[in-house]
Specification:
about 425 residues, alpha+beta, 8-stranded mixed beta sheet, 3-stranded antiparallel beta sheet, about 40% helix, about 20% strand
Length: about 425
């Protein structure tokens, strides 16, 4: 026997108890009872009995219902943190602040949310995963999380020293770069207006510098005022490497905006460190004009190592990227075409008879908006009049489009035992 639901046009379906049997080798069925008047709970109970189930009396506590929380992702992230020894680096066992910090780090990986939402997700009554239970946190408030962050700040130097002992050694590369983050509010003493990398105009920001091991593993971080220039953050990092980490010889790697000639002379050489950075465009142009860089070096390969009297004791590694130059040329052609199309629209507005665009100021504003949209102002020369506008592109065979894209790295690594190993790694 089985229960079958039979559609009944615009009426509710008929629920029938039926039995199947064979007659002359054919499968037939007949209706035993109409169950349409039964409640859904009774129907499902009978369906379970027909499938071999057992009927449980009403009010009988046969099952104990417990709360079920998502566990897999929390166990994976927390297990990885414990496997790499993050708990031991953060602090001693049994410290609640350490467990709260570990919970915030793990929660930041699983679901980045505010501190108030993090406290709610860790508390037992409002938990959204098993993370809080796995760490035995109990009830958590947002005030505790902020207090744990203050505790973490006091231990920053010890944590960074432990990471440096694990990931850095004499003769290795040290990667350093700077970024910034905008912020809301007026209570942060480091928040200043500066070069905003997030393109959030009118907001304050903070600047932070990150030291990394050769494999990119973060080792130390330091926060600066929002209006701090990138090169001025280099001196504290050198002092940190020499004094706190106890490294006598490393190779500092940074971009051309970070490791400038002034920083090389005043900070890096004075500390006895080696360095690798890149030349800026004017210096590359001088090398090309002076003849120190000959294009015949790149007939077979796209990379060469040269020396120049302008950079005594340094090794210059020159890389030619023809694909990047071609890609930039293609993008430039697209921007020029888009600009010409927009300027043609302005020309049409100037020459039309009905409601034409008139006046030098109005024409200049319209043209300026077009040129600023595609950043092609340098590629055009304009001759605007009261009644006629003439804009045409200049010679496109300029240095920005023609030739190849050059990248020249400059490195200072004197010949000694540690440097030889470092050069091999580089």
């Amino acid at each position: 026997m089985y229960i079958e639901s039979v559609p009944n046009r615009n009426s509710p379906p008929a629920i029938l108890l039926r039995e199947s049997f064979r007659l002359d080798g054919k499968v037939c069925k007949r209706t035993l009872c109409n169950l349409s008047g039964w409640s859904p709970a009774h129907i499902e109970g009978l369906r379970g009995v027909l499938k071999g189930g057992t009927v449980i009396a009403a009010g009988h506590d046969a099952f104990t219902i417990t709360r079920s929380l998502p566990h897999g992702h929390a166990a994976a992230a927390l297990g990885t943190a414990r496997k790499i020894g993050l708990e031991r680096i953060l602090g001693p066992d049994g410290d609640r602040c350490r467990d709260l910090v570990l919970a915030m780090l793990t929660g930041r990986i699983l679901d980045p949310i505010s501190k108030l939402a993090t406290a709610r997700s860790l508390s037992p009554d409002t938990a959204c995963s098993s993370l809080g239970e796995a760490l035995g946190l109990g009830d958590v408030t947002d005030a505790e999380l902020y207090a744990a962050l203050d505790w973490l700040l006091e231990r920053q130097a010890a944590i960074e020293t432990a990471l440096a002992k694990r990931h850095l050694q004499n003769g290795s590369l040290v990667l350093y770069d700077v970024s910034s983050s905008y912020m809301e509010g007026r209570c942060c003493p480091l928040a200043r207006r500066g070069h905003n990398r997030d393109r959030k105009k009118g907001t304050v920001q903070i600047v932070y510098g990150l030291l990394c091991a050769p494999d990119g593993c973060p080792v130390a971080i330091e926060v600066f005022d929002g209006n701090t220039g990138d090169p001025t953050t280099l001196a504290p990092q050198i002092e940190k490497l020499k004094q706190r980490f106890g490294l006598s010889h490393v190779v500092l790697v940074g971009d051309r905006g970070m490791i400038t000639q002034a920083r090389i002379t005043e900070d890096i050489k004075a500390a006895g460190l080696d360095w690798i950075t890149a030349l800026r465009a004017p210096a590359i142009k001088e090398l090309l004009n002076s003849g120190s860089l000959q294009l015949t070096l790149f007939d077979q390969r796209d990379m060469a190592s040269i020396t120049s009297p302008d950079f005594p004791g340094e090794r210059l590694v020159v890389c030619r990227n023809a694909d990047l130059a071609a890609e930039r040329g293609r993008k430039r052609e697209e921007l020029l075409g888009a600009t010409e199309k927009d300027l043609a629209t302005i020309n049409t507005r100037v020459g039309r008879k009905r409601d034409p665009l008139r006046g030098t100021a109005e024409i200049a504003l319209a043209v300026g908006a077009v040129l600023n949209t595609h950043k092609m102002k340098k590629a055009f020369r304009s001759d605007d009049h009261r009644r006629q506008l003439q804009l045409c592109p200049q010679d496109r065979r300029d240095r920005r489009r023609g030739g190849h894209r050059w990248v020249i790295c400059r490195a200072y690594q004197p010949v000694r035992g540690d440097a030889q190993r470092c050069r091999y790694r580089a």
